[in-house]
Design a protein that fits this description.
mainly beta, 48% strand, globular, binds FE2/S2 (inorganic) cluster
Length: 108
């Protein structure tokens, strides 16, 4: 991955439920911002099994669970921890600054 990632403001921290999600689109990339157990994560929005949004997924134990077939993904790595998905979600570095969430996107 490029070293020249650029942090882009995604939303205010207060816009994301404390144990929940918010869908955003940054530079044309659909993302799901997740807050879980005091941490903030940014991942690709759509499940790698089929093309459904994880904004409606369940959040628990550093996991997002897809609402359609129940695949679980580790929020820290994007890796699937439960079938049927076998491919990881893309993850993006996150920074919090003055109450706003910034996400590092690959340089285009
Ligand atoms: S669409 Fe997400 S597990 Fe099938």
């Amino acid at each position: 991955m490029s070293e020249s990632n650029e942090f882009v403001r995604a939303c205010a921290l207060s816009e994301v439920p404390a144990q929940g999600t918010l869908g955003v689109e940054l530079n044309g990339i659909p993302l799901v911002i997740v807050r879980s157990d005091g941490e903030v994560y940014a991942l690709q929005e759509f499940c790698t099994h089929e093309d459904v949004s994880l904004v409606d997924g369940d959040i628990y134990d550093h996991t997002v669970e897809c609402w359609l077939h129940g695949s679980c993904f580790d929020l820290r790595t994007g890796k699937p921890t439960g079938p049927p998905a076998s491919k990881p979600l893309a993850t993006y570095p996150v920074r919090i600054d003055s109450g706003d969430i910034y996400v590092a996107l690959p340089a285009s």
